[in-house]
Amino acid sequence: MKRHVRLGINIDHVATLRNARGENYPEVTEAARIVEKCGADLVTVHVREDRRHINEKDLGDILNAINIPVNLEIGANSEMIKIANEYKPKCVCFVPEKRKEITTEGGLDVVNNFDKLKKFIKSLSNDNIKIAIFIDPDKDQLIASQKLGVKTIEFHTGSYANAFIKKNNVDLELKKIIESTTFAKKIGLNCHAGHGLTFDNVGAIVSINDIIELNIGHFIIANSIFDGLENSILKMRKVISEAIK
Ligand code: PXP
Fold first, then answer.
1. Which of 12, 100, 132, 193 could form a disulfide with 93 if both were Cys (CB 3.0 to 4.6 A apart)?
2. CATH, domain 6-243, list 3.40.50.720, 1.20.1250.20, 3.20.20.70, 3.40.50.2000
3. Catalytic: 46?
């Protein structure tokens, strides 16, 4: 039997579209229900400091609307920890956040933010929340993540996705993810992956045996404009399933 790779659908950009006009549509809860109906494993949302897409009300509404777990992406700061502790999603993924960035550019620098991360992660651990940290595929970051005591990391696949678009250094970027996954496994870390994944580039990532979860957002929501959310998720599932040996 083929291995199951969990698929989290990030619905942030449904809220981006809603917020562009300050209306109350498209509804994020409707998107979350479709994600659940399509058999995805998680609904992923990122509450950002500037609330440019998902806000706390959305988070609460989504948690009430579905039965599959919600994976909350947050920056490591006390405001976001407070939100995570209040809403208690099943999973939290710590991501770096710079105010001016368009999207999450690169992984967390665990090596240089070790003490800060340790403090915040400790304040969440009591609530049975599954914690992951979003890092670049890099050995030093993996060693630091393991020392931090987290069980799971998510590899930032953005450099690979960019290389794929530019048709430049794809093998090199992929090699970094493959070797980092092997090393992560060796030191006892579970591996997720996400950022910039599409129908065309997801296959090589999901072919890495020890990647157990993918989180995909922007491409799915963009593709939904032409093909609908349901078809886009089902097609991604199919592409993933066909790539798994
Ligand atoms: N995983 C994490 C931790 C992220 O921060 C993001 C972007 O919010 C994604 C996955 C999804 O990336 P994309 O929207 O490019 O598919």
1. 132
2. 3.20.20.70
3. yes
